[in-house]
Amino acid sequence: xxxxxxxxxxxxxxxxxxxxxxxxxxxxxxxxxxxxxxxxxxxxxxxxxxxxxxxxxxxxxxxxxxxxxxxxxxxxxxxxxxxxxxxxxxxxxxxxxxxxxxxxxxxxxxxxxxxxxxxxxxxxxxxxxxxxxxxxxxxxxxxxxxxxxxxxxxxxxxxxxxxxxxxxxxxxxxxxxxxxxxxxxxxxxxxx
Amino acid sequence: xxxxxxxxxxxxxxxxxxxxxxxxxxxxxxxxxxxxxxxxxxxxxxxxxxxxxxxxxxxxxxxxxxxxxxxxxxxxxxxxxxxxxxxxxxxxxxxxxxxxxxxxxxxxxxxxxxxxxxxxxxxxxxxxxxxxxxxxxxxxxxxxxxxxxxxxxxxxxxxxxxxxxxxxxxxxxxxxxxxxxxxxxxxxxxxx
Amino acid sequence: xxxxxxxxxxxxxxxxxxxxxxxxxxxxxxxxxxxxxxxxxxxxxxxxxxxxxxxxxxxxxxxxxxxxxxxxxxxxxxxxxxxxxxxxxxxxxxxxxxxxxxxxxxxxxxxxxxxxxxxxxxxxxxxxxxxxxxxxxxxxxxxxxxxxxxxxxxxxxxxxxxxxxxxxxxxxxxxxxxxxxxxxxxxxxxxx
Amino acid sequence: xxxxxxxxxxxxxxxxxxxxxxxxxxxxxxxxxxxxxxxxxxxxxxxxxxxxxxxxxxxxxxxxxxxxxxxxxxxxxxxxxxxxxxxxxxxxxxxxxxxxxxxxxxxxxxxxxxxxxxxxxxxxxxxxxxxxxxxxxxxxxxxxxxxxxxxxxxxxxxxxxxxxxxxxxxxxxxxxxxxxxxxxxxxxxxxx
DNA sequence: TATGAATGAGACTTCATTCAT
DNA sequence: AATGAATGAAGTCTCATTCAT
Lengths: 192, 192, 192, 192
Fold this sequence. Notes:
4 copies of one chain form a homotetramer. By secondary structure, chain A is mainly α. Chain A folds into 2 domains: 1-58, Orthogonal Bundle (Arc Repressor Mutant, subunit A); 82-190, no CATH class. Chain A contains 9 helices and no strands. In chain A, helix 5 (86-103) runs antiparallel to helix 9. The longest helix of chain A is centred in the N-terminal third of the chain and has 26 residues, at 6-31. Chain A is elongated. In chain A, 33% of the residues are buried. The mean pLDDT of chain A is 94. Chains in contact: A-B, C-D. Chain A binds chain B through residues 32, 34-35, 109, 112-113, 115-116, 118-119, 125, 128-129, 132, 150, 153, 156-157, 159-165, 167-168, 170-173, 175, 177, 180-181, 184-185, and chain B through 34, 109, 112-113, 115-116, 118-120, 125, 128-129, 132, 150, 153, 156-157, 159-165, 167-168, 170-173, 175, 177, 180-181, 184-185.
């Protein structure tokens, strides 16, 4: 009789977009952005191709939404990492980072793939530039508190290091001495 | 109508493969591997599509050959970098590296793109794993000579740092403080 | 929760269909029948897609209703054109016609587009055949009163002329010598 | 062994493009431009969809080629129409025109449909504007020789008339008094 | 009466690859 | 060794229409 209420619709919409984004994330993390087709995502999400275009105007916009969701999820995690003691905070960051590499390497690959597309998709560049400067500020503050002489440059070192180690893990996988590196870096930055 | 001699054929072959590989490199560096089509490469190389399949069984094999050639070219450059003084050698490496980022960032992007495909294309993983251990050995030896306490771990740090800084440059481009980082890293590793 | 009365319902129905038909007309005049989607019409009309299918079983039937409405609207205008003096009536027709071309060319395009679909949509053919014979009768009577020798054939000439001039205006637009033609035709048919 | 000669290739190409253009013409004349799909054309022409894009970069470019070919074909016919006696030439034009309406009405519809798209496809407008002015010149010259007082305006009348009559035939089909109109118009313009 | 989420067929297009010559 | 015409699977996207509420 009467149409669905706004609340009902909102629920339906968020469930569907949720299913789609999750399916997209799963597949793109596994196969990469370009290699994942809209059809596959629709099938994985259990919806029709048409519905996807109901919620996301294009594959690119789906990527956009996916990135934003991923960043939001990431920020929730960052909340749990903070400690009163800056050395502990930094250690938590490193431990979290290496655990990510150990457990969610595919996600790392996806993020890397997307970052490499910064040139092709302007919104990627925009988002990442912002996030990057946030992270640099975060590390820089931490390192200042820890008494480092060049906290800014050292922040860039840490950022680069993390990207680079992630990258190396992606490429050589099991061969990377991940445990040793974790210990070495934590010792170097947090233990003194 | 006499048949071509083996030597003539060999020359023709190497000229054609050369043209093709150079064209492929140029285009893939510019647009990426996936976005570069066989047709474009053939046109850029001035040969027919058919001929490409005469020399390379598939696009993937062309990539394989391209990687090997790129590595060979890279090795020639590494020869000019070596000095009697290990600190100077290391500084040369860093200077070469930052200049690459400044002048040939696109090539760096291409290499990164390919490395991320290590999972998809086994030969990529194989080649890179070998090269990586070579580089690690090279840095490790250098750092040993320079008196570093943990030359192996530190070598991984340097390797990661380079990957990571390259990555960051790719993503944020002009915003990256490349000159400062060059100075900071050279000071840190080579000046004392 | 008392049910709406029949009268209320009737009013609602006619308001909704009115809004839909007007929106459809506006958009189809602008973009053409095929290029106007049901979604666009619904949005322009401020109703839901579902409601459209409540009133019109298909896009084709919407077109049908639109044509009928357009013809009804046209007939109202024709009422204002009639004069005691047949020469004046004919001149009024011509002046109205050329002003339509000057001011509402898009509508003319839409009508032409639809007429060309007569084969595809039988109801179009049916409606137009009836209207055409009415117009021919109208012109024929007028020309008889004006003393033309072959009023029937001449009526067909006038009808064809109007279609053809409208068509030419659509195609070449500004380049068509619309003012000269108006004067020439009025002189020819109404001035003597 | 050796690749095909240029001549062989040229022949193959022109055969294929010929097949494609003919199939496209057949289908578009029957169903209209928009309603004819690339797939249908490929099937009708007995080639693959891919091949179509080998020869025509897009559906729009196929239309472009089709229009040009149609105009070329039309010009060949116009050659046979010319006579020393201008009255005879004009009569030939009218007879040819009415025969077209009798025998190839579908083609007329196609041409009309395309002309209505002049706004959407700039190349259509360009081509048609040129052709139109050629025809107007042709008629104007003829009418001058025949001693008409306002040959230019009268040329526009004739052009419009032909478009309009064609249009009417398309719409009402069999009901149109085509034979009477032919006689009437020829009498009016050619029998002094 | 009214909504809008959902569907699925079908549109245009790209591209690695094959093969007759 | 070399050509380029031909293929067909797969991709992204649109849209009229249905249906639960």
